[in-house]
Specification:
Blueprint lengths: L6 H24 L6 H4 L18 H25 L1 H29 L6
Length: about 120
C-alpha cells in the first residue's frame, strides 16, 4: 500500500481545517461583539420557552418530518433514474418499482396516522 497516494487528501484536509479556523478567528477578532439581555436569552423557535423543556411533542411533528424526508429521498433518487432509464433496463425498472412501493407504504402509514390532517 503506497501512502504517497493519500498525501493530496491529507493536504486538502489540513488546508481546509486551517482556512476554517482562520476564518473563524478573523470573524471573532474583527466582528462586533455587543451582547445584551435579548441576544443572550434562551429562545425556541422564535418565541419564549414555556413549561418544562422535557415536555412531549405531538407525534404529528415527527410524522411530518418523516413525510418530508420520504418525498425528499424520492425526488433525489428518481431524477437520476429517469435520466438513465434507457441504460438500466428492466432490472432498473423493477428496482425503482420496489423503491416506490416502499415509499407508498410509508405514505399510507403517514396518512393512516393522520399526519396529513391539519387542524
Amino acid at each position: 500500500m503506497n501512502l504517497q497516494q493519500y498525501f493530496p487528501v491529507l493536504l486538502f484536509i489540513i488546508v481546509a481545517t486551517l482556512i476554517g479556523f482562520a476564518l473563524l478567528g478573523i470573524g471573532r477578532v474583527l466582528g462586533p461583539y455587543r451582547p445584551d439581555e435579548q441576544k443572550l436569552s434562551p429562545y425556541e423557535c422564535g418565541f419564549d420557552a414555556f413549561d418544562d423543556s422535557r415536555m412531549n411533542f405531538d407525534v404529528r411533528y415527527y410524522l411530518v418530518a418523516i413525510l418530508f424526508i420520504m418525498f425528499d429521498l424520492e425526488i433525489a433518487f428518481l431524477f437520476p433514474w429517469a435520466i438513465a432509464s434507457n441504460e438500466v433496463g428492466m432490472v432498473g425498472f423493477w428496482t425503482v418499482m420496489v423503491f416506490l412501493a416502499v415509499l407508498a407504504a410509508g405514505f399510507i402509514y403517514e396518512w393512516k396516522k393522520g399526519a396529513l390532517d391539519w387542524e
